[in-house]
Amino acid sequence: MKAHHTFRPIAVAPLQTRGSPWLHQQRMNLSNGKANTNSARSVEIPMEAAQHTTPTPALPPHSLLPTKALLRSSLVAAVSSHPFLLNPSLSILTFLSGQTSRLLSLEKNPILYALFKKTMYNHFCAGENGKEVGATIKGLKDMGYSGVILTYAREVVMDHSTQEGSGVGAQLIKDGTADVPAQTQDIFDADIEAWREGVFETAGLIGENDFLALKFTGAGAVVADALQADKPFPKQMMAALEEVCEKAISQKASILVDAEQQFVQKAIDRVAIDLMKKYNRDGKTVVYNTYQAYLKATPDVLYKHMKQAADEGFAIGVKLVRGAYINSEPRHLINDSKEGTDDQYNSIASALLNGQYRDMGEDQPLPLPKFQLFMGTHNKESVLKANELQRKRAEQGLCVRPVRYGQLLGMADEVSCTLLLLKAQTQGAPMFVSPEAYKCLSWGTLGDCVSYLMRRAKENKDAVSRTKQEYIALRREVWRRFIKYL
Ligand SMILES: Cc1cc2nc3c(=O)[nH]c(=O)nc-3n(C[C@H](O)[C@H](O)[C@H](O)COP(=O)(O)OP(=O)(O)OC[C@H]3O[C@@H](n4cnc5c(N)ncnc54)[C@H](O)[C@@H]3O)c2cc1C
Fold first, then answer.
1. Which domain holds residue 155?
2. Which of 214, 322, 462 to mutate to test the pocket of ligand 1 (most atoms within 8 A of CB)?
3. What SS3 state is found at 161?
4. Residue 78 covered by a domain
5. What's the pTM value of the predicted model, to 2 decimals?
6. Which segments constitute the Proline dehydrogenase domain (predicted)?
7. What is the pLDDT of residues 380-391, one digit of tens each?
8. What pLDDT does 418 receive?
9. Closest to 50 (Cα-Cα) out of 342, 409, 400, 375
């Protein structure tokens, strides 16, 4: 949609004076030294202002990290970026995670507990209870994050080639002994109940602008088996799902349905679409489904879902990720190369931001449904490309849709902090040009989080070159911050 005038109304979020003094300084610079403390309002600014929003940060992205987090990140990055440190650390972690004795259990031995909690756990996880999680969320919002994605750490991961899994319910799926009750059957399953309690509590810990992440296989074998067989959830799970969604919505939060492995994904898509049909009404997008760009089939699946949304009049929430299960999925389903996945990710993102998906959109035969885009990625190029596209569209007076970006806690801080800088530097720019940065947090007891942590550690292993770059940048920031004391 072309703007026919040089001035257009924009929404300006209140400038926050709390949090990082440096971030505040960036905002002061942008408002000619006058900190604006008004609440959200609509003002008119010249379009030319939007043309000068590309950042020229005076300080590096990691300068936004509080010193404690900076030092902990440096330690974790030092280990992750050096295979001779990472490999033995992973072996030790694998060994300890299976121990139950008082001497060797991470949870029972107070020295191991304290060591693990203060390093790996605090780096990657939000907390073991509401108080710890609340403090983590507050710290992130004070830094300038728009919100958080919170997830409960229990999970099951199946290896397609070996049919082996870890976490809740894996053994029963493997054995094929999990019973799949019909939806009408009244059953009581302890794993579903544990999931309901955990996720309900999680929904109670978040608020406006936050997201609740739902991982269905975390509800155990009965649910995972129902997904695998593409059968309806048991009644108990349907009730639990409705309860946690209503809770999140009552907290003014939204819901992200995680994508998992292919043997359960078709059914996850079906449940996610049902939730969208129910909750994404009247133009609101409360529920998002996840689309994995590494799958060759994803552009078609997304097209089908978008068309259904347009035909049936509900809004579609699109969480776009590359995909986490490359090591356990059938290889032929995945793009042949990393470049193929990168291209697919970036082209889906730009098609959506340009408001044209195949034959849907402006000047196309079919209408585009209402949609919202959430980009879950650590890839700086993808993030900057999308942000640049937004900026260009604003510059040209074209319709700019909101886009949110998320990175996992403890990972890709350079990307997250770059987004925070861009946000600080584009306060006052036309609507939605300021990127909204989110951190994705897992919470739960140390025991609950161990398999999650193992996956994070292994992911770092797979991304050694990026971890190395992150380590170098962190080390430079430590040096910059402490040189004055030498
Ligand atoms: C907020 C958030 C939410 C997430 N939610 C989910 C989720 O619900 N489900 C899920 O599956 N994942 C999820 N992920 C993980 C995500 O899918 C990626 O595994 C991870 O973010 C790494 O990809 P990247 O986009 O950050 O970029 P990069 O690190 O640049 O890309 C790595 C990814 O590229 C792909 N890739 C690597 N090598 C090849 C190759 N040879 N051929 C083809 N493709 C290749 C893989 O997908 C790999 O994970 C989430 C990530 C984030 C940050």
1. 7-56+122-452
2. 322
3. coil
4. no
5. 0.84
6. 136-469
7. 999 999 999 999
8. 96
9. 400
